[in-house]
Design goal:
273 residues, Alpha-Beta Plaits, 6-stranded mixed β-barrel, 3 helices, alpha+beta, 4-stranded antiparallel β-sheet
Amino acid sequence: MLNRERLPLLALLVTTASIVSACASRGPQDGPPRTVSNIPRDLPGNATPREEPRSRYGNGPYYKVRGKTYKVMDSSSGYQERGVASWYGKKFHGRMTSNQEPYDMYAMTAAHKTLPLPTYVRVRNLKNNRSIIVRVNDRGPFVANRLIDLSYSAATKLDMIRDGTGLVEVTAISFDEPASQTVANTSAVNTETSPGSNIFIQVGAFGEINNARRRFSLLRANGFRQAFVYKDESQNPALFRVRVGPIADVDQFDEIVERLGKIGIHETHLVTD
């Protein structure tokens, strides 16, 4: 998908006057290498996680982009989240990332809005179960429903180049001490998928069946014919999870999330069967 754009270096920190690179996603002029001769024959291996000092740049604690303020996480420990990955390429090759390193589209790197810089993360494509490790050294993507922006090489290894986006799981490989600010997505029942696994949008998890039924009724009344209630008996007591799906691709995900927002449902999670 080439209908995305990447912000310029405009994100003003709230507490300091430092500027961070604001990677929002690729625009019409972005893409893979210009010529076949520039495409590497051998893609790089995974980034090698190692303990590094926190960068002097791009770590806030606050910064603002397009009128929205973001708070950089105190710790990456325990972080796991599912969402949409995008990628950026030749248009930004050689430009400075948020922590003032030259962006290398052939390196195994990524941009994230709130993880500390640098952080190593494992990114898993939920559709084909391919997995990579990248080093987060940039900020973004500042586009609705986008979780992480990958380098060209990283996206290639996840088989995301043709589609431009993909449904992924991002897990921090952390050397940090746990912190209360750390966000972990604990809504998913399964932590592994296999190719062909179904992907759903979860819109609530309830201890009382009547609460789940009310959420389900709201969905069906607003045209969500793929909504259903799943009784999760792996929990004690059981949880009643309200889900929509299965989800075929990012386009369908974006459409459903937008429709959910119009009926007041803004908290959603990607889960797999």
